[in-house]
């Protein structure tokens, strides 16, 4: 992924770029974030024994910081820039957070954010990704997306009425009104969940509790145990696939600007509990894909609405988490699967498209896909990192071997 200036786009007024499909894409992206990745954050907070105030502040900081960054970067670049919190980072904290004083953990977040900011704004990360063959990067993305789509198949088997009905509604929607197929699927899924009794009425409490400031303290062991692995898993597991996603969908992203913006938001929000703000991959595929709008130049509105919904849900963090926990998991899995089909299609094509012209890169890409999709995480480092490493090593080894042959 090369460092390039942001693409010049028509200076179209916002009202002329508005579309209901963009609103839907933004809402679905946030809904999936709250129904899945946010639950990992809550589990990490529970395992570390955090107070309700600190847990609420953590959720608040992640949602509001992500939302503001989505809105600003999407407006500035006129691209659907979607940022979110680090899911592999939250998974890492499931076991690590409780081993340190909370203020030391906050200090580690600050250090990690500074490291990510330096790597992002200098363009080092973009130049590193530019060395990797395009099929290998596409395979990393395909490996990240594939398990989410496969979970939709599992959901149909375990919940044929709700998840199966949602998938059928999506296919009918694609035939009749492609732009609103995801919206149709979501509406049918909610209706079927209510009719079958699989969804329950949530006990919503409008809690406007705000963030809680924690002054960072810096401990060497916390920095080594949290900050360093947090940067590795965030850059390899989120920012890399996020840039690959945008490239697959046809966007030339200024990696210095977007990575710098996301890392700056992380740095500012870290004392409030934010463990990582980065480019999104899964939800970016929803907002930057053709379902958001057939015109690529108007999809940035999906990024803006994603940010708006993040901010709204962040202000009512407790109620938002309760709301999405009332929706059956099978429905959310099926919804994520159908919403990501387009992005998976594009990444798979990029993975194998150069098979005849560059068979070595294609073989390395298949290795990357297998390792990434496997979900292995040796040393607590997520599979996209190992997939990228395995594919790169395979590419170098195969190219040298064939060159000698």
UniProtKB/TrEMBL annotation:
Please list the GO terms describing molecular function: benzoate transmembrane transporter activity
- Matching InterPro entries: Benzoate_Transporter (IPR004711)
The UniProt keyword set, sorted, is: Membrane, Transmembrane, Transmembrane helix
Question: Looking at the keywords, is Transmembrane helix present?
Answer: yes
Q: Which Pfam families match?
A: BenE
- Gene Ontology cellular component list: plasma membrane
Note whether Manganese occurs among the keywords: no
Which residue ranges run through the membrane?
21-45, 57-75, 82-100, 106-125, 132-150, 156-173, 180-200, 220-237, 300-323, 329-348, 385-401
Source species, domain of life? Bacteria
- State the protein's name: Benzoate/H(+) symporter BenE family transporter
Query: What is the species listed in this Swiss-Prot or TrEMBL entry?
Result: Pseudarthrobacter psychrotolerans
């Amino acid at each position: 992924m090369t460092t390039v200036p942001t693409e010049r786009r028509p200076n179209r007024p916002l009202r002329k770029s508005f579309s209901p499909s963009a609103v839907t894409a933004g809402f679905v992206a946030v809904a999936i974030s709250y129904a899945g990745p946010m639950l990992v954050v809550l589990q990490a907070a529970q395992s570390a024994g955090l107070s309700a105030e600190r847990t609420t502040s953590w959720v608040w900081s992640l949602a509001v910081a992500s939302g503001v960054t989505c809105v600003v970067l999407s407006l500035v670049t006129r691209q659907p820039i979607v940022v979110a919190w680090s899911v592999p980072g939250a998974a890492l904290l499931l076991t690590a957070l409780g081993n340190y004083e909370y203020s030391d953990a906050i200090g580690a977040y600050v250090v990690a954010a500074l490291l990510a900011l330096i790597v992002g704004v200098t363009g080092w990360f973009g130049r590193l990704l530019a060395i990797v063959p395009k099929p290998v990067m596409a395979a990393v993305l395909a490996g990240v997306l594939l398990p989410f789509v496969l979970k939709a198949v599992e959901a149909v088997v375990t919940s044929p009425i709700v998840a199966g009905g949602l998938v059928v509604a999506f296919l009918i929607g694609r035939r009749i009104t492609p732009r609103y197929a995801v919206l149709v699927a979501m509406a049918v899924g909610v209706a079927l969940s209510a009719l079958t009794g699989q969804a329950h009425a949530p006990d919503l409490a409008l809690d406007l509790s705000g963030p809680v400031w924690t002054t960072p303290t810096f401990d060497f062991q916390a920095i080594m145990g949290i900050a360093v692995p947090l940067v590795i898993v965030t850059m390899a597991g989120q920012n890399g696939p996020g840039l690959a996603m945008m490239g697959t969908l046809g966007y030339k992203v200024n990696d210095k600007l977007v990575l710098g913006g996301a890392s700056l938001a992380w740095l500012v929000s870290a004392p409030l509990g934010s463990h990582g703000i980065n480019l999104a991959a899964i939800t970016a595929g929803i907002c930057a894909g053709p379902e958001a709008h057939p015109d690529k130049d108007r999809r940035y509105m999906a990024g803006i609405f994603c940010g708006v919904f993040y901010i709204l849900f962040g202000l009512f963090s407790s109620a938002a988490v309760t709301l999405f926990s009332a929706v059956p998991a099978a429905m959310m899995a099926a919804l994520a699967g159908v919403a990501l089909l387009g992005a998976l299609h594009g990444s798979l094509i990029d993975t194998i498209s150069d098979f005849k012209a560059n068979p070595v890169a294609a073989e390395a890409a298949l290795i990357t896909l297998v390792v990434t999709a496997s979900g292995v995480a040796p040393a607590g480092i997520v599979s996209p990192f190992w997939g990228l490493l395995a594919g790169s090593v395979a590419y170098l080894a195969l190219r040298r071997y064939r060159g000698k042959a």
